[in-house]
Amino acid sequence: MTQLQTPLDQLDLALRELRQGRIVLVYDSLARENEVDMVVAAELISPEHVGTMRSGAGGLLCVALGYDVCERFGIVAMRDILLFASHRYPVLKLLDEEEAPYGGKSAFSITVNHRQTFTGVTDRDRAFTISELAKLARLTLNDEGSPELFASEFKAPGHVHLLQESKGSLSERRGHTELSVYMCRLAELAPAAALCEMLDADTHSALSIDDAAEYAHEHSVPLVDGQQLVSHYLARSNI
Question: Which domain covers residue 72, as residue numbers?
Fold first, then answer.
């Protein structure tokens, strides 16, 4: 298996690509999902990005939101919603998975469409929903926004899956949600990232790191090692 080495200049390149509205690849680690995700800054997403993720990655297109964004707009974890509702619908308690097979709690929250979309599933509709989510995420940088504003712009259920960053970010959880949100923060973008797992149609499993590295080379896309992102985060936290 390819051993990823992401020097600072490679990370800098990835951040520059994010700022310019381009896709980057992010590998979490062998100890977690052992997957590579396509990632793009939510505020710079286009229908073309959605098409690329849908056809070139093939996984579930989600939007990772910073914990502070979720707090500001009242967006909660799906697990909390299900456990709360299980008082009336007991089967929901039976469905609960306290910890994922690769460790930690799920980052999944609700699904939404923007109120101005039609079906919500087309590349244009999903790109619009994602970009409008990023606008709200940017409001939190100025301590603005409210649950009422969120509800006035979006409806649920929808076709865009929201992911909630853990409260402690990469010090608490080291999934693609936290990795992608941290990269957006480093790039001085809104703390919201669109991401999609890269799958392999031949093996019917996750795309291997070797094949992801080949894809990155062929398409001139930066491939970032999540472990080094974690180290970068922890080093900054200790300053």
Answer: 8-237
Q: What is the pLDDT of residue 7?
A: 46
Q: Select from 161, 138, 130, 133 the least CA-distant residue to 45.
A: 130
> Which residues make Cβ contacts (< 8 Å) with residue 3, sequence separation at least 6?
none
- Domains: count for the chain: 1
Which amino acid, residue 169? S
Q: Which residues are catalytic?
A: 37, 62, 102, 113, 159, 197
Q: Is the pTM of this model over 0.85?
A: yes
Alpha-carbon distance of 22 to 5, in angstroms, equals 21
Confidence of residue 2 (pLDDT cuts 50, 70, 90): very low
Task: Determine the pLDDT at residue 104.
Answer: 80
Mean pLDDT of the chain: 93
* Beta carbons of 146 and 69 less than 8 angstroms apart: no
Cα 63 to Cα 164: distance, rounded to the nearest angstrom: 9
Q: Domain containing 113 — which CATH number?
A: 3.90.870.10
Q: Which two tokens stand for residue 195?
A: 């991401």
Residue 1 resides in a domain: no
Residue 9: per-residue pLDDT: 57
Assess if residue 3 is contained within a domain.
Answer: no
What are the tokens at 91? Answer: 């089967």
Strand pairing class (24-27; 36-41): antiparallel
Rounded Cα distance between 131 and 78, Å, is 22
Number of Cβ atoms within 10 Å of the Cβ of 30? 11
